[in-house]
Amino acid sequence: MRFLLLLLLTVTPLLHAQTVLHRPATLETTGGTLHGSLLLPKSYQPVPIALLIAGSGPTDRNGNNPLGNNGSLLRLAQGLAQRGIASVRYDKRGIAASLAAGRDERQLSVQGYAADAADWVRQLRADPRFSSLVLIGHSEGALIASLAAQQVKVDGLILIAGSGRPIDEVLIEQLRTRQPAALQPESLQLIRQLKAGHVQEQVRDELQVLFRPSVQPYLISLFREDPAVAFAKTKEPALIVQGTTDIQISLDDARRLKAARPDADVLVISGMNHVLRIVAADLQQQLASYQNPDAPLAGELIPALARFIGQVPASSPEENGR
């Protein structure tokens, strides 16, 4: 009997892992095909599904970009799948496998990203394999999720490490501590001009990565939005998640989001940073975590998300459109 129990303990995790199906996911749009990944727990009944929306810049479906390979969204999807929750995560228009759908970055906008997310929701709503549908936005994806939720019916909204301030304010704060002092006056002037809606064609070489003319239309669209105002316009059950050692977004942002929607739940995870790992408030350790896909996610995160999603009631079919 003791041997049998040991054998079962050894085999069960493997069997559990084999119950998750990995499938490609695509969304056809007028501008081209968006590509993503579906993780689907095998079930005879419809399961909840989360649409994961990545953060700013060229961040792909897994949470990676040229400056960081941490796999945060991949690990998030895997953790949810092990708890019976399906997910789709996708490369946004103009990024990674969805590059062809947005090769001209002058045509990209945060509002367009929100419309794409809403179209993903409509497609998933029509799939009988899924019951409730929740948007999970990370970082800038939190703003996109709030904007998308105003366009289409979702059953729940989770904002992880989302700004509670206009993004130009966040950018100014970050540049003051991380950019050489000699570049800051010109950066601040560029941000002011973009906030006013004016494209600046002349940008010095050192600032091209942030303010190249081709990306300025996107920044203009982004600076027009106030994440707290966008969140206040949503109505679904909502959860705000923030870590205490996040070097990009602060607890004050979570407080601002909470003030915008006092009915929202808030989860503060002690020691969690922007890429969802438990990391000390040490800059070198923080930067190293952005390059470590093998590090586990914060232990509290997946169980808390699963509890929230499990409590969200599914919409009836007639409620699926707005």
Poorly predicted runs are 1-18
Strand-pairing-aware structural class: alpha/beta
Q: Numbering strands along the chain, what is their spatial order in the largest sheet? A: 1-2-4-3-5-6-7-8
Run of helices and strands: HEEEHEHEHEHHHHHEHEHH
For the secondary structure, the number of strands is 8
- Helices, by number, come to 12
- Beta-strand residue fraction: 15-25%
Shape: globular
- Indicate the mean pLDDT: 92
Largest sheet: 8 strands, mixed
The rounded distance between the terminal residues' Cα atoms is 57 Å
Using only C-alpha atoms, the radius of gyration works out to 20 Å
Binned, the helix content reads: 25-40%
Give an account of the 3D structure:
It is globular and about 60 Å long. It has an eight-stranded mixed sheet with strand order 1-2-4-3-5-6-7-8, sandwiched between helices. Helix 4 (140-149) links the parallel strand 5 and strand 6. It has helices at 2-17, 72-81, 110-125, 140-149, 167-178, 184-195, 208-211, 216-223, 227-232, 251-260, 283-289, 301-311, and strands spanning 20-29, 32-41, 47-53, 86-90, 130-138, 156-160, 238-243, 265-269. Mean pLDDT is 92; it is low at 1-18. Helix content is 38%, strand content 18%.
